[in-house]
Design goal:
The chain is mainly beta. It has seven helices and 30 strands. The two termini are 36 Å apart. Its EC number is 3.2.1.91.
Length: 457
């Protein structure tokens, strides 16, 4: 999944030169708590921290000259990958004033638009175990739950909470000259193999950089950063999707140009990962009254979202056989809606569900090609980093989540209708103009054995 970058950004290096840390702003992570639960439902409070992705940070020369402005590199400081990494420094973040990120106890609030030195749009953050390492979550055979408030997210916005197979230290061990690491939010990867990252795996991504034609802040380079991705939650107040994206490898891997696949390559399906995933969107699966304002799951109110990763033998080392979704709201436990699409039965993500969905919807089955649920289970078993984010979509206006998509297909075709939003909605200029005060709040994060993180009344 792609997030949009707004201020000056960057991350860096190659083993022959250093990923430097700037000294203009101290890096102080906002604190947050989460809970680890046991079989009996008792939960232990864990202390964590929030860090913003390196791609949102100011990157500059030692004297403070921008290495990247708008959507282009400084040609003097960054004529090539090596020189750029030698010249540029990654600095600390001012979380509230610049990025609109605040925490309180067990919650984090991400504001959409923040005006300070410049205009910041959205954010991508990670949960840390301490000041230098990401928290690794091992959820195979377990469940992951959290509370979320999407009441202020309209069409075209996406409050996304998901897991990715990043290095726990941000890449320091694999790239020893990396001086920044997880403390500064380095090492991002996902199943889209994003090429908009300024530095990947210790190497700058300057060479081949193409500025975006419709986004004044982003572009993409020759390299991408691939890894497995488990989208626990992509949602606004009109639609939601739960989507596993397996890869051929569980760990973060660099790709080159069109071999990355994804939206910025000539062959979307030419990479190591499944860019589409196997999604469960209640609206797309036929129930148009399950999720939304005043619906069964009422997006005007806070809800608890529970995702269960069921294995074939009920253990945390077995093979992933299904992914289940529950909601808890107003004291009631609500199961995922059942599919009403002919030929696609059930309300869980299983191999049969995914196979049938791809056939009925006419979608390319890259899910099976990249190992399906078994490969996703391997990634979950190896541990993944939690991402908490808010973004709008310069590539497809978020229509793939909350409207009819692709827009060239009749809405009567199975799988095209994904949400009630207009196909003219979601244009970032409109979204940013209409909803500058939008925000999402994530809270009450819990991990534990099946049925341990919520009360079943």
């Amino acid at each position: 999944m792609y997030l949009l970058i707004s201020l000056i950004l960057l991350s860096f290096l190659n083993v022959s030169f250093s990923q430097k840390v700037g000294k203009f702003s101290p890096e102080v992570h906002p604190p947050i708590t989460w809970q680890e639960c046991a079989d009996d439902g008792s939960c232990k409070t864990m202390n964590g921290e929030i860090v913003i992705d390196a791609n949102w940070r100011w990157v500059h020369s030692e004297q403070g000259t921008n290495c990247y402005t708008g959507n282009t590199w400084n040609p003097t400081l960054c004529p090539d990958d090596k020189t750029c990494a030698e010249n540029c420094y990654l600095d600390g973040a001012n979380y509230e004033s610049v990025y609109g990120i605040t925490t309180e106890d067990d919650s984090v609030r991400l504001n959409f638009i923040t005006q300070s030195q410049g205009k910041n749009i959205g954010s991508r953050t990670f949960l840390m175990a301490n000041s230098t390492n990401y928290q690794m979550f091992y959820v195979l055979g377990q469940e992951f739950s959290f509370d979320v408030d999407v009441s202020n997210l309209d069409c075209g916005l996406n409050g996304a909470l998901y897991l990715v197979s990043m290095d726990s230290d941000g890449g320091i061990a694999r790239f020893p000259s990396n001086e920044a690491g997880a403390q500064y939010g380095t090492g991002y990867c996902d199943a889209q193999c994003p090429r908009d990252l300024k530095f990947i795996s210790g190497s700058a991504n300057v060479e081949g950089w193409i500025p975006s034609s419709n986004n004044p802040n982003t572009g993409y380079g020759n390299h991408g950063s691939c890894c497995a991705e488990m989208d626990l939650w992509e949602a606004n107040n009109m639609a939601t999707a739960l989507t596993p994206h397996p890869c051929d490898t569980s760990s973060q891997t660099v790709c080159e140009s069109d071999s990355c696949g994804g939206a910025t390559s000539s062959n979307r399906y030419g990479g190591l990962c499944d860019p589409d995933g196997c999604d469960y969107n209640p609206y797309r699966m036929g129930n148009t009254t399950f999720f939304g304002p005043g619906q069964t799951v009422d997006t005007k109110s806070v809800m608890t979202v529970v995702t269960q990763f069921i294995t074939n033998d009920g253990t945390t080392t077995g093979t992933l056989k299904s992914i289940k979704r529950l909601y808890v709201q107003n004291g009631q436990v609500i199961s995922q809606s059942e599919s009403t699409v002919p030929g696609v039965a059930g309300n869980e993500i299983t191999e049969d569900f995914c196979h049938n969905q791809k056939q009925v919807f006419g979608d390319k089955d890259s899910f099976t090609k990249h190992g399906g649920l078994a490969a996703m289970g391997d990634a979950l078993k190896n541990g993944m980093v939690l991402v908490l984010s808010l973004w709008d979509d310069y590539l497809a206006d978020m229509l793939w989540l909350d409207s009819n998509y692709p827009t060239t297909s009749p809405v009567t075709e199975p799988g095209v209708a994904r949400g009630p939003c207009s196909t003219s909605s979601g244009t970032p200029t409109d979204v940013e103009s209409k909803y500058p005060n939008a925000y999402v709040v994530y809270s009450n994060i819990k991990v534990g054995p099946i049925n341990s993180t919520f009360k079943n009344n």
